[in-house]
Every structure is written in C-alpha cells, then in structure tokens.
Design goal:
The protein is mainly alpha-helical and 302 residues long. Helix content is 32%, strand content 5%. It binds a DNA duplex (21 and 21 nucleotides) through helix 3 and helix 6.
Length: 302
DNA sequence: AAATCGAGCAACCGCAAGAGA
DNA sequence: CTCTCTTGCGGTTGCTCGATT
C-alpha cells in the first residue's frame, strides 16, 4: 500500500513556527514526554504534521540545545569526524552534545567548506587541493568509500595542518577517531575540549534526556536525583545543583521576557539570587520549572 | 533611500531502516 | 515472511536579513 502521507494533508500548516505553536509543543512535550510524534500535533492542538513537530523540537526547542556558532574546538571535531564519516551528520552530531545534525550540516555548508577551501583543503576528500584544476575537472576524485569499509583511519588534511598549532589536543582527537573505527555505533570523542569534565555525563543528540513530569523534581539540596540522565557537572558556578538545569541554553527568539506574559501555562515565580527568573507550569507538578538566565536570556528546565 | 545580492539557517521533502502486528 | 507505520537521515529549498551598489 505504500506509506501514509505525512505532510500533504490539506489544512496542515507549513513554514516557520510561531511562538504560540512553540509554546503548545513545549508544553505538550514537557507534560507528556516524547511519544508518538504522529499523535503529537493532534494532542497538542497543532495544525502541523508529526514530522514537523519532531523536527521543530529536535532542532530548535529541545532545552538541551546549545545556540550560536560552533566553537573552534567544535569545528575541529566536525572536520575530523567528517574526514572519516563523510556526510553522516547525525553521527557527527552525536559527538557534539547540544548540537543537531541540521545545525552541523548547515555550519559545514556555510562556514567550514569555505574555510577548508581557503586553507587549500578539499572539503570532500580532506586532502590538499591539487594545484592542477584541470585534473580535477577531468577526473573528479572517486567518491570516498563508505566509512565502515575504510581500512585506514583517516587523518584529515585539516588535522595535519592544524597539528603543529594545536599540538596534543588535535592529536588526542585524531587518536580518538582512529579508535572509533572499531566500534562506530558507540562513537564518542574521548577528549572534548568544551566538555572536559566527566564524559560519562554527556549525552548525544539522540539521547535527549526526556523530562517526565515526575522527573522534574527540584530537590532542595545536593541531589540523589532521578534525573541522572541529564546530570551535568559543568555548571558548578551557577549556584544551582548541577542536576537541576541544562547548561547555556539560549533562546534568542525569546529574548524579551514580555513575550512570555501571555503564556497561559507558565507563571513567573520569582527571581533568584543569581538574577534568574523562575517560572512554574501549574499544569505540571509544582516542581516543574523553567529557568531564564540573565540576558541574553537562557532557558532551562529544572 | 531604494534596489539588489548573497549568506545563513530553519524547515521541508523523499527515502530508508527498523519495529511490530 | 509480509505489510504497515513510525522515526531518522541527508539533501534541498526558500525565507530573512545584513551588506553592497
């Protein structure tokens, strides 16, 4: 019979999401967790297809997402992984907590490609670009073999070029890549410069810590929390228990708090000692909170 | 000031894989 | 084993906005 069409139903909305739609989706996911995406739009009162909802949540609304440009160290990881994995953006994203495959793909196409070309490196092969452009035109390089079939660990030209500058950091990343070929399914960069603490805590983009209402408990002290999947030890300076909020979650779209004034579901509670605004969703249990850090407003779920 | 161009990025599309009945 | 459904993935599109003319 073939697959049931997803997004071609008449009446379903397409295009950019509105703030109101975002609110509905956020509220639904935080209340119910991620379930059958096909049912989400109906249950959440959205005129979107489930696929669109999933994409919106995964690529933009998920509270554990980082925002902003990739850092230098993140770029290096992307480049090294691309050298061995090719355009497997989801695999690459799995090594960059808080980054999505879409984001990395976009960044690659808009920034890194040009950067590599400027450095004289072919962004496809990761080898130095031949001086003879004719040769390229006449005999384009054969497509790289599927990564899982590669026998040699690929050390990108970028890595080679950068090694002198970066020293041990890049070497460690390269060695991590070498090891990775043995078990691609559990790709993990051993030393992530931006996450230098306990790596066991880091999660992949496909390991989004679901926030079930009953998991949103905010203990009043150091926690033996049930939210261990989202535990982070990288925010000691926040003054909040580490397992109580996600780190550095900027929502530029919602920079102005007044946007939230008409958010029926969320009550602004107070401003804590760190000048963060706390909000509570009364439809959830009393401990379910959002945190809005000081400008630029950051968002997290306690 | 208006028009044009181009970069950046959110979102869409179609296909494939996997799960379950 | 087959069929159906859901989800994930990668390529592509098109909108927005800043820079340039």
């Amino acid at each position: 019979m073939g697959r049931q069409p997803c997004c071609d139903k008449v009446g379903l909305k397409k295009g950019p999401w509105t703030i109101e739609e975002d609110k509905k989706l956020i509220n639904f996911i935080l209340t119910n967790g991620q379930c059958c995406w096909r049912a989400v739009p109906k249950l959440a009162g959205l005129l979107r297809c489930g696929k669109s909802c999933r994409l919106r949540w995964t690529n933009y609304l998920r509270p554990d997402l980082k925002r902003g440009l990739l850092s230098e160290s993140e770029e290096k990881i992307v480049i090294d992984l691309h050298a061995s994995l090719g355009n497997r953006w989801s695999k690459i994203a799995a090594n960059l907590p808080g980054r999505t495959d879409n984001e990395i793909k976009n960044h690659w196409n808009t920034h890194i490609k040009k950067k590599l070309k400027r450095m004289g490196i072919d962004p496809i092969t990761h080898k130095p670009i031949s001086t003879s452009t004719d040769q390229e035109a006449k005999s384009p390089p054969p497509p790289p073999p599927p990564p899982q079939l590669q026998q040699e660990p690929v050390v990108s030209a970028f890595s080679e070029a950068e090694q002198n500058k970066q020293g041990n950091e890049t070497l460690l990343q390269s060695s991590a890549i070498t090891e990775r070929k043995e078990e691609e399914k559990s790709i993990k960069i051993i030393t992530s410069p931006f996450n230098s603490t306990d790596n066991s805590d880091s999660f992949c983009t496909d390991e989004v810590p679901l926030i079930e209402p009953h998991e949103n408990l905010v203990p009043s002290g150091p926690s033996s929390s049930t939210t261990s999947t989202s535990t982070s030890s990288s925010s000691a300076s926040s003054g909040m228990p580490d397992d109580m909020h996600f780190s550095s979650l900027e929502w530029p779209q919602y920079n102005n708090m007044s946007i939230w004034d008409d958010f029926n579901y969320w009550d602004l509670l107070c401003e804590d000692g760190d000048h963060r605004k706390l909000a509570v969703d009364p439809s959830l249990n009393q401990f379910s909170r959002l945190v809005f850090d000081q400008e630029p407003w950051k968002f997290g779920v306690l």
